[in-house]
Specification:
This protein is mainly beta. The chain has a single domain, classed as TolB, C-terminal domain (Neuraminidase), CATH 2.120.10. The protein is 0% helix and 57% strand. It is built from no helices and 24 strands. A 4-stranded antiparallel beta sheet has the order 1-24-23-22, with no helix packed on it. Strands 2-3-4-5 form a 4-stranded antiparallel beta sheet, with no helix packed on it. β14 and β15 form a beta hairpin. It is globular. The mean pLDDT is 95.
Length: 271
């Protein structure tokens, strides 16, 4: 497949998003969110105080940002400031990891333990409603990571990195999650960031250094093999024919050179 590096020198790229004709990602080690054009030109940089850093947009254009170690959800204002949107510490003081919006609501997940300490099946998903209230809507997840809402808006899918699966929930009218079930079991994989793809869901896999498109039920539809750990991915481009991948050497050395890259992989090209 045709691929090219469009950004380099990244500490650790995460939270891949395609929005407004640009590729967005968070550099966890450098504490920034970047928006870049498809050719790699940097368009915007937002500083965030702590990591994990993830983000998504509400329908009115407001950008919500997770400041994970602070257990806070922040709102990026038109004036360029970060304002409190929700305090999540009452639900868990472990790092909060990922956010995705669904209409006026937002879902935020937490890994449930102090990484890289002993792993626990203690991850949760909290719901933020437009009135500013939060409540837990899912528990006992094995390192919840990337999340997507299916195109029909009826299902939330979360990657459980330490269970080797993508897990689905029905979304109720009040935002509650129910009918928990495996969406796709992916043995030997550690799914991290995920995004919707043609016929399924793409997941990025750090230890296996690849991104995999998997259908509901677990059939592997496509694999993009790279030479670095893949942390997050997003389908984008003018014709939605490019997979943007945030990848880096792993384990990362915070005191060493920044090895992270963003690769643009053409999905309509063959090997």
């Amino acid at each position: 497949m045709e691929s090219k590096v469009i950004a380099s020198g990244i500490g650790m790229g995460e939270s891949a998003r395609w929005h407004g004709g640009r590729f967005w990602f968070a550099d966890w080690l450098k504490g920034h969110i970047h928006a870049i054009d498809p050719d790699g030109t940097n368009h915007q940089t937002i500083s965030v105080p702590t990591f994990p850093i993830t983000f998504d947009w509400l329908p009115d254009g407001h950008l919500l940002i997770v400041s994970g170690s602070e257990c806070k959800l922040l709102s990026f204002t038109p004036a360029g400031t970060l304002e409190p949107a929700a305090d999540l510490s009452s639900w868990s003081t472990a790092p909060w990891n990922e956010v995705i919006t669904h209409g006026p609501n937002a879902y935020i997940n937490c890994i449930g333990f102090t990484y890289p300490g002993p792993s626990e099946v203690a991850g949760v998903i909290a719901l933020l409603t437009p009135d500013g209230g939060t409540r837990l809507v899912a528990r006992e997840l094995a390192f919840p990571n990337g999340m997507v809402v299916t195109g029909d808006g009826a299902t939330l899918v979360v990657a459980e990195s330490h269970a080797g699966c993508l897990t689905a929930f029905d979304i109720a009218s009040d935002g509650s999650l129910g009918n928990r079930r495996p969406w796709a079991v992916v043995p030997g994989s550690a799914p991290d960031g995920i995004c919707l793809g043609d016929g399924g869901i793409w997941f990025a896999d750090v230890p296996n250094k690849n991104c995999v498109l998997v259908a509901e039920g677990g059939e592997v539809l496509r694999t993009v093999q790279l030479d670095q750990g893949c942390f997050s991915c997003a389908v984008g481009g003018e014709k939605s024919n490019t997979l943007f991948v945030a990848c880096s050497d792993w384990p990362a050395d915070p005191s060493g050179p920044a090895t992270g890259n963003v690769l643009a992989v053409r999905l309509d090209s063959e090997l």
